[in-house]
Amino acid sequence: MYSSTITEHEDNKNRKSAQETENGRNSILNQPAMHMPAEQPLIWRNIIVIAILHVTAIYLFATRYREAKFWTWMWSIAYAHLSGFGITAGLHRLWAHRSYRAKLQLRVLLIFLYCMAGQITPSKWLRVHRTHHKYTDTCADPHNSNRGFFFSHVGWLMMKHHPAVKQYGKNVDMSDIAADPVIRFADKYFILIMVPMCFILPTVIPVYAWNETWDISASSVLVRYVLGLNFTFSVNSFAHLWGNRPYNRYAFNLSGSRLRDYY
């Protein structure tokens, strides 16, 4: 009796949540601006940085990274998985979707693991992700997959947001995030935490732990960093092209099972 009541309650919650999301999506679709292109100036700084990062990572992987010692490879793989865990178990499952509860110690650990990935401040990441789910595949979706593979993968980072993203993103409830002291701390000291965790620490340890050369150690960090970014980007691009709906039958957005499990 208790089990069936819980199941019915969760089913009603899913139905209500999906309906609210669908209503929000329809409110966007019914706006005239939804069907008109908007001016989105390019952010040349982002374009140049993204291009340099990828060209450099490809070059280093082809020339220097292959000379790395065995433990440097293992270190890079382990670091990538730990930072990925900070994204998927931390910002994604815990903070963005509130899939479970976590004590202070675990929240602190997860936020440090997230900083190892070297992305954006936690609160900004969470607002983008919640806006994406609330208005999936509309102009209010920051990485709207209807605008093509490249845009949803990385192109959306190369230009200003569509006006609808800013307009409707304000409707996303972020009160729980603003009330979390761990998120507030990470936002305030993000650069001071992220730079050592993402770049300095993983470069120094291989050099002093197993005598890796400085150039190869630094190269491995850059390659790992760029690959990690593209794993995250792929959830927005590949998953929406070839994803499925394995969990909530009321949800209209797609999620690639393999990529979702990692990020």
TrEMBL record:
<keyword id="KW-0275">Fatty acid biosynthesis</keyword>
<feature type="transmembrane region" description="Helical">
    <location>
        <begin position="73"/>
        <end position="92"/>
    </location>
</feature>
<dbReference type="InterPro" id="IPR015876">
    <property type="entry name" value="Acyl-CoA_DS"/>
</dbReference>
<feature type="transmembrane region" description="Helical">
    <location>
        <begin position="42"/>
        <end position="61"/>
    </location>
</feature>
<keyword id="KW-0812">Transmembrane</keyword>
<comment type="similarity">
    <text>Belongs to the fatty acid desaturase type 1 family.</text>
</comment>
<keyword id="KW-0276">Fatty acid metabolism</keyword>
<keyword id="KW-0444">Lipid biosynthesis</keyword>
<protein>
    <submittedName>
        <fullName>Uncharacterized protein</fullName>
    </submittedName>
</protein>
<keyword id="KW-0560">Oxidoreductase</keyword>
<keyword id="KW-0472">Membrane</keyword>
<feature type="compositionally biased region" description="Basic and acidic residues">
    <location>
        <begin position="7"/>
        <end position="23"/>
    </location>
</feature>
<feature type="transmembrane region" description="Helical">
    <location>
        <begin position="104"/>
        <end position="121"/>
    </location>
</feature>
<feature type="transmembrane region" description="Helical">
    <location>
        <begin position="189"/>
        <end position="210"/>
    </location>
</feature>
<dbReference type="GO" id="GO:0006636">
    <property type="term" value="P:unsaturated fatty acid biosynthetic process"/>
</dbReference>
<dbReference type="GO" id="GO:0005506">
    <property type="term" value="F:iron ion binding"/>
</dbReference>
<feature type="transmembrane region" description="Helical">
    <location>
        <begin position="222"/>
        <end position="242"/>
    </location>
</feature>
<keyword id="KW-0443">Lipid metabolism</keyword>
<dbReference type="GO" id="GO:0004768">
    <property type="term" value="F:stearoyl-CoA 9-desaturase activity"/>
</dbReference>
<keyword id="KW-1133">Transmembrane helix</keyword>
<dbReference type="GO" id="GO:0005789">
    <property type="term" value="C:endoplasmic reticulum membrane"/>
</dbReference>
<feature type="region of interest" description="Disordered">
    <location>
        <begin position="1"/>
        <end position="23"/>
    </location>
</feature>
